[in-house]
Amino acid sequence: MSDEEHQFEAAADAGASKTYPQQAGTIRKNGYIVIKARPCKVVEVSTSKTGKHGHAKCHFVAIDIFNGKKLEDIVPSSHNCDVPHVNRTDYQLIDISEDGFVSLLTDNGSTKDDLKLPTDDALLTQIKDGFAEGKDLVVSVMSAMGEEQICSLKDISKV
Question: Which stretches of sequence are listed as region Disordered (predicted)?
């Protein structure tokens, strides 16, 4: 037996994975899938019959949830695909800074200041115009695989 002291440095996070495995044949339209390391929403699924070499294949057409690009993948239906953990959280908009960052009020009363305005022009215009008019706005923030982006807007002003 040795009397040496061993110290280990943890190089990982608490083990909360950004994705989970799901069998390709069980993923449906409007579900989520990871294609080319990007979280995507499935817009079309087609399954081919088993061929000469055995596997039925699933053909996925999906849209990246953050940049809107169309991606495709073909996977044997019995194999596992990565599915991102996608969360949607609502925050009240407090301020928009000069450099394009937004200040959001969280449920516990603190502020979240690390999000930029969305790149979608229509949503960007709605947010800026509503804020300039002094409306009470709530933004929905979608987060997946370590990325976050404002995806929709609600006006909660009393008329």
Answer: 1-21
